[in-house]
């Protein structure tokens, strides 16, 4: 057990290091941050001074090692955009990210599992075929484009939902949350729906595939022979077994 846990922890460290390296190189590959942060009207003396203050005059490998050293000491550096320490900035925005991710997960599970059960139980029905065809769009359509279309439809044309912002928040446990207010929920719905489309399509397909795999098995036939109701067979015997891959993927 200890050996397995140690191996997993070492793998996690390697993955984190690789991700930080990829992100670090990617941020520099998309363009020179100096050109993004410093206007063209700044003279060369001020430009060189700002570059030195930001540490961007160092070689890329030295900047990366400096970042790793600071990260090990709990210092992720300063935000170039806001000129404030990164960790307080992350913690300030973390509640909004967390509630948005959880809202998207709830939408995917609440809609995806019952829909997948319906599709798996009646795969040849026209509605099931339509759902499976529509789920392909959830995998294929770019999230940013879907978000723009949702804003265009529900915010610009219909005017039902706000296009941006977090809405009214309420403090709970020292943190501001928007899901505790009606205005916050209205602001959260569109981005959460957009974020949930990929997960929703995945849950529908996994659930449908699991149902079709489980239904022909002997213990389902035996449950039917015992005279159990279809609702109990589906809710207890079918759903319990297909939850294993679902929980793994959702986790």
Strand arrangement across the biggest beta sheet: 1-2
Q: Mean pLDDT, as a whole number?
A: 80
Q: Nearest-angstrom radius of gyration?
A: 25 Å
Structural class: mainly alpha
Identify low-pLDDT runs: none
End-to-end separation in angstroms reads 22 Å
Number of distinct beta strands: 2
The fraction of residues in strands falls at under 5%
The string of secondary-structure elements, in order, is HHHHHHHEEHHH
List keywords for this structure.
single chain, 2 strands, mainly alpha, about 250 residues, about 0% strand
What would you note in describing this structure?
With 251 residues, the protein is mostly helical. The chain has 2 domains: 2-84, no CATH class; 88-250, no CATH class. Helices cover 74% and strands 2% of the residues. It has 10 helices and 2 strands; from the N terminus they run αααααααββααα. It has helices spanning 2-29, 33-37, 44-54, 60-72, 86-121, 126-140, 143-157, 182-214, 218-225, 230-250; strands at 170-172, 175-177. A two-stranded antiparallel sheet has the order 1-2. Strand 1 (170-172) and strand 2 form a beta hairpin. Helix 6 packs across helix 8 (182-214) and helix 7 (143-157) packs across helix 8. The chain is extended. 15% of the residues are buried.
